[in-house]
Amino acid sequence: MKVLIGGYTKKTSKGIYELPFTGENSDSRLGKAENIVSIGGPTYFQKDDDLIFAINNAGDKGGISVFKVNESGSNEVDRYLTPGSSPAYVGINRDKKWLYTANYHTAVLSVFRYNDSGKLDLITTTTHKPESLGPRPEQADGPHPHFFDETPAGNLVCCDLGNDTVDFYRLENNELKHLAQYKNEAGFGDRHIVFSKDGNYFYVVGELSSKINVVKFNEDTWDFEDIATYKTIPDDFTEHNGAAAVYISNDGKYIYVSNRGHNSIAVFKVNDDHTLSLVQRVSTFGDFPRDFNWDESEKYLVAANQNSDNATLYLRNTGTGTLTPIQKDIEVPEGTRVLFTK
């Protein structure tokens, strides 16, 4: 097993790094980070077998690049770049070979198809408009899509930080058809979203509010019911914080949210009525944890600290949901995206 970490390339990072994973349980360790993909600003990426689909910040252009990776290294097989900033998120359906990108700066959502060799085909795009911009300074300059991926029923969903909205789409005749919209409180700053295992609830994280909102919804009628909202940071924490990544365990019992500023991961238990109970806030032992992720068994979790150039390895208790740090100060530069791989 290995861990891939990529992020910004503003200081010393050269792109995506691979860290070997050895040992078991509390003796598990991550080894030295080795650069395997050289690319500008791979702040998010996905993997399908030997293909890596990475955000590419190529100076005055931005987009995604596809790399084929093997034991001897990596080579770029295709790219799609447009003038301006690069996207913030890449979603994937490996069965259908679809890619979805959300561009925070240009407000463009894109859908791609790819083949076995990694060649890209742009299917369609749509651009968010400034329909309900929030009151915070980060929202004043327009819509900011930060997430674009699939729903449990196979529709598409976008979180828009600028508009404080969750927007739902369907791909019809290679065009994106807008289906519905859920509006969060002003200044919420929608960033990322996960769904309950029965597909009847979603949990959306607000970056600007440091909150997670539980919503019951029907993907046939598009009815929404606001269930509850919870802070991801302590009430007495007054310094700047931006909530970031959110993951839900495969059994649907626990939700995890990273806090950039408070520099922690908040662990919530999902109750029978889908309300949440705080289980733990655990330090990431670094500064600005944008992303974290776990292995297939969800026994091991790695958080990357962007500003302090380090990562932390945890052992996860699958019964209680709690995280126990077992390795700190793992050197990796400017990490913003974590992905376990075989």
Automatic annotation (TrEMBL):
Transmembrane segments: none annotated. Signal peptide: none annotated. Pfam families: Lactonase. PANTHER family: 6-PHOSPHOGLUCONOLACTONASE (PTHR30344:SF1), 6-PHOSPHOGLUCONOLACTONASE-RELATED (PTHR30344). Belongs to the cycloisomerase 2 family. InterPro entries: Cycloisomerase_2, Haem_d1_sf, Lactonase_7-beta_prop, WD40/YVTN_repeat-like_dom_sf. This is Lactonase family protein. It comes from the Bacteria. It comes from Lactobacillus amylovorus subsp. animalium.
